[in-house]
């Protein structure tokens, strides 16, 4: 935290000594978010007799933004750790510092058209940044995870009236090489990159186009990401080579509200080669509606379908939801498309979602999911049931002030033998009921200085 407040003091000094130009704005804020969790099978069922986990994690962020004539700057520094992770005193002589402090965002956006041009904007955003589109299913900031997600990228943006067109690109390297561009996507200490624990991309390019509707959006996405080629050594360890395998994902998203009815639909197709050099042909289909029954209560039904499995020729049909926010879609227990894999079986999710909002301060949501495999589940030559299980999620949120909010949740999963079988999560003697509960406190003040 000392580093965070030092950075804040530095920015205040900059504001004092380096006076901004006309029409400049400086924004500064902080966030402290704690989350205390009781995990009894969250992520994957535990073996019988296992004890639940209990801990508190904390995200500490300091962010600043500066905007002036034809430019914007953004910086977010964060520290993420578990309470008690560090000793109360650290001997710097014999113990290396545990570095949980990192730069989450550091970007600049340049307005390529003069700001007096009406109804048109052409800009270039470069640097470390969050990339989010639509409902964050494929591209999101993963804000639920304390560490979040960011990309080192350049994004060219054009906006006019209801239309938006973005072109983005990224090219990753582990260090400043003297020669070559071989990239190790899983260096020691790094988080996995994709939503379901995949390796980090070597490079990425995308085109995003959207049009605003009367009360919603329709959009198109084409994304290409490349993964380092490799060969295994004598022990099976991957040795990274020159060149890359290319995977492509394309599709459309639709969301609009008609009076009291909100409709959402999406369809995406994935092809090329995945990070494991398998030929790929996979897809995702999603459709849902939410109906406002009264001013304070709404309910709706939906379904998601992602393909899975591998055919006899070795072609993979396992859809990868890229760099999104899976916690938002496939149950809060995070059994699917997060860190704990499920054998690339694909997923069928049929769900009911309800929302109760009492005034501007209190929100209660309740969801129910039925999960099935999208492909056959076979163990020892025997075909098992495709049903993975049932999940119930309950979340309550209360805003004490505009700065301080509280959140609490409880989730329960009733799993089947298919889910814990060797072909899926491979958990021997697994418990059939799993639980997860949490309480979170979020404090986020912000100050704005104008000239």
From TrEMBL:
<dbReference type="Pfam" id="PF13372">
    <property type="entry name" value="Alginate_exp"/>
</dbReference>
<protein>
    <submittedName>
        <fullName>Alginate export family protein</fullName>
    </submittedName>
</protein>
<dbReference type="InterPro" id="IPR025388">
    <property type="entry name" value="Alginate_export_dom"/>
</dbReference>
<keyword id="KW-0732">Signal</keyword>
<feature type="domain" description="Alginate export">
    <location>
        <begin position="26"/>
        <end position="419"/>
    </location>
</feature>
<feature type="signal peptide">
    <location>
        <begin position="1"/>
        <end position="24"/>
    </location>
</feature>
